[in-house]
Each structure stands twice: as C-alpha cells, then as structure tokens.
Amino acid sequence: MPKLFSGPEDRRIKRALCVVAHPDDIEFYCAGAVLLMTRHGVAVDFVLATSGDKGTRDGGKSRAKVARIREREQEMAADVLGVKHVVFLRHPDAELVESLELREELVREIRASKPDVLLTFDPNVPYRFHPDHRVVGRVALDAAWPSARDPLTFPKAGTPHETAEAWCFGGLQPTLEIDVEEVLGKKIEARLAHASQTTSPAALMRRWRAMARIEKFHQVNLR
Ligand SMILES: [Zn+2]
Fold first, then answer.
1. What is the 170 CA–ligand 1 centroid distance (Å)?
2. Residue 70 belongs to what H/E stretch?
3. Burial class (CB within 10 angstroms; exposed 0-12, middle 13-18, buried 19+) of 223
4. What spacing in Å lies between the alpha carbon of 16 and ligand 1's midpoint?
5. Which of 21, 129, 151, 153 could lock 147 by a disulfide, CB 3.0 to 4.6 Å apart?
6. 165 C-alpha to center of ligand 1: Å?
7. How many Å lie between the centroid of ligand 1 and the Cα of residue 145?
8. Which CATH architecture has domain 15-221?
9. pLDDT tens digit sequence for 19-48
C-alpha cells in the first residue's frame, strides 16, 4: 500500500478538491492547507453544495440575494487562496439530505477535477454539528470511494477517477495536524472576504491569530 501523504507539502499531490456545504466553510476548516498547496503549484478546486442562502439574520433580504452576495464573497476568497475554479451546486441551504442525486453530482465533480486529495467534512462528528456538514462529508466520501472510481457507476458522470486520499476536517479524531502559521495572514484575508458573515473584522482577526494556526484532519486512504 502506498505511503500516506505527509501533508500539503507532499510533492506527490498535484491536484486537490475541497467539497463543502457553505461559503466560508473552507476558510474556517482548511484554507491554510489550501494555501500551502497552491503556493507550490497544486491545482485546487472548490465545490459548494449550497450558496448559504439562509446565512443572514436580516429577514428582509431574499434568499436569492443572499446567495448572490455569498457566491461573490466565496469567489473573492478563492482568489486570495490561489483557487481559480469554484462550482456552486446551489442546493437550498440547511436542507441537504443524503441522496443518490447529490452523490452523482459529486461524482461528476470528482471525475472532472481528478484530485489526489479530497478535503471534506468528517461525518463522524458530535451531535451539535450543522446537518449540512454531516451530509456533505458522508456523500462526498461515498462519491469518492467507490462511486467515482467504478466505470459502471454513474457512467454519464464522466471518466472514472481514483482519489488517493481524503482529509476530513471537523471530526473528533484528527490524525494529521498542519501548522499554517506561515500563511495565516492570507488565510485570515480569505475569511474576511466573507464580509456579510463578519460583524467585527478586528475582533475576528484577533481571534483567528490566536486560534486558526493549526488545522486538523482525519486522513483516510482511499486506494
Ligand atoms: Zn457551513
């Protein structure tokens, strides 16, 4: 069995794909790892299952408007992170369910992106965890292994692809800790691109300088 990747600096990693539920999930959980990869030429793609269309306390805004603002913010954050390709699947926020339709969509994205590493939510999480996060983690892992690999599964969703590993974040048993100190400034800049989700940039900056230096993943071999 091939050795697990040592971390984002492992030169065997050429491509990576982040699959998350909402705009700003990537910045919260794995933006440092993304920066450590893109800065030495790894192509990283983003897929968001929803556009966070309920992510506001202002009941006067329409969901379509919230989604438009948040997609734009995610694209600006991706730009800071060195990521050129962002796909929005536009499922309704807070309504994700495990379905074969979602699995096929994610198979299509995995086969198009051809990642060596899939970064997504760890579905083994505490009870108080956003249900969309749990669903995305579970369905993305099911899509990567074995569905995206097998030619008779969703044959219209592209050419089969075997993803080497998944790095799952937000779970209870991390096995890979990444120190992102050297890119922390950029990581915070990407998070601040989500202006609609930020009440005090100064307070966020202070908090993140103290707590966002280490990113934790559960590393899963999919080969
Ligand atoms: Zn989220």
1. 11
2. helix 63-80
3. exposed
4. 20
5. 153
6. 22
7. 23
8. 3-Layer(aba) Sandwich (3.40)
9. 999 999 999 999 999 999 999 999 999 999
